[in-house]
Amino acid sequence: MQRVCFLLKVRQDRIEAYRERHASVWPEMCEALTATGWHNYSLFLREDGLLVGYLETEDFAAAQAAMEKTEVNARWQAEMAPFFEALDGARPDEAMKPLTEVFHLA
User: Fold this and answer.
1) Number of domains, the chain
2) Which of 10, 79, 83, 98 is 20–30 Å from 25 (CA)?
3) Where is the signal peptide (predicted)?
4) Containing domain of residue 77, as a range?
């Protein structure tokens, strides 16, 4: 199982709205994530907007590609894009660049 961690930055003026949005993620989005191989997926948000994402998957590139093919993901990414800083024209899911793991306590 591959462990994946990534960082994004939520706009300071949208932090509370971002939290509220994730208090009720669409059931079809959760189902699509599970069906496409996203497991143990968590998001952590710091007060300054730093967002840390963590998930486990067999193949992150394949999981991303499978989500990209879903209609629900297109709708979700379009709604979430305005919440983030520095996407440089990318969708939020395209801006998720995995960090390099340097230590894991097994």
Assistant:
1) 1
2) 98
3) none
4) 2-83
